[in-house]
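Take one record.
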Amino acid sequence: MTEATGRIMEALRAVPRGKVSCYRDIALAAGLPRGARQVVRVLHSMAEKYRLPWHRIIRADGRIALEGPGRELQIALLRAEGVRVFKPGRVDLERYGFKAPAGS
């Protein structure tokens, strides 16, 4: 595992239950200003193995990026944590957004 991957995983784990963050903000917290796609790759390849809170990460515009069954699972998991998800898969970032401090 690279140092950058470790920092991304730390930033992901910093997002508390009942809150969401976006790929860009996780990358910034990990010290990777252009690393949003790297966050996506870490989530895709490591979320299950390392029990990362993948469902708490959404797009910067407040929308859920996933389509299909994964989208419905993400919505269900967020709602189970008390996050209100509006149709069509949008979360109020003012209310539920979380920005991990840089270097978290």
In short: DSSP finds five helices and four strands in the chain. The chain has a mean pLDDT of 93. The radius of gyration is 13 Å.
